[in-house]
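Dear Dr. V.,

Thank you for agreeing to look over these. As mentioned in my earlier message, I'm a first-year student in the group and I'm still getting used to reading structure tokens, so any feedback on how I've presented them would be very welcome. I ran two proteins. I've put each sequence directly above its structure. The first is here:
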Amino acid sequence: MLNAFDGALLKAGIGNTNLIKMSSIVPPKCRLIEPVKLPYGALVPVAYASLSSSLPGEHIAAAVAVAFPVNAELPGVIMEYSGKEPLTIIENRVREMAEHALTMRGESLREIKSIGIEYTVNKIAAVFAGAVLWTNDEA
């Protein structure tokens, strides 16, 4: 199972880093950038959902959603979710959670971004979806 999770991290482009699981606050003025090559062994803050399974035929999915407030001076929120349902259900649920978290903070939604993955298990498998926070002065 751990090798399946490691494989999912490699496929996501963060398998050679050290993940620091963070809670779900996006600093103000953050922006989405294209993936960058992260330094080997870097300490990488990430909010993520994952799920592993060894049941052949089982369907697994994971997704994250980021909700940005209208006021860019305020923080956004990240929500993550995984389950044994189709990705459309998982992704809709995580988007609703992110929007609700912003509403709980008394903020209006400017934009929501989400990403997810689904897989049907053959032998052993893992799915991973994450939002990495990274300072990139070149981006």
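The second protein is here, in the same arrangement:
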Amino acid sequence: MFFPGSRYLNCLTYTVTLPDGTVVKAVQPPLPRPRPLLGYHRRQEGQRLDLIANRYLGDPLAFWQLCDSNNTLLPDSLAARALVGIPRRS
């Protein structure tokens, strides 16, 4: 269901019944696991997190590691930040 390396890959799933009776599967989001920072990247106007992740982490799908290191669950919340903390590679 999730791509290899996803933060959700090994998370618990459960089912939820919506008010209209539809049953859907949900995933419990993991808490951020910040790693020590290598430094900070000053974002340019419109610069996407996948490009920053690829530059520093070698994987555009590792954008969620930038979120974890900046103590946020949602990538869009980093859009308002001028500086993005860059985690050390594992």
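From my reading of the second output: The chain has two domains: 1-30, 33-87. The two ends are 24 Å apart (CA to CA). Does that match how you would interpret it?

Kind regards,
E.
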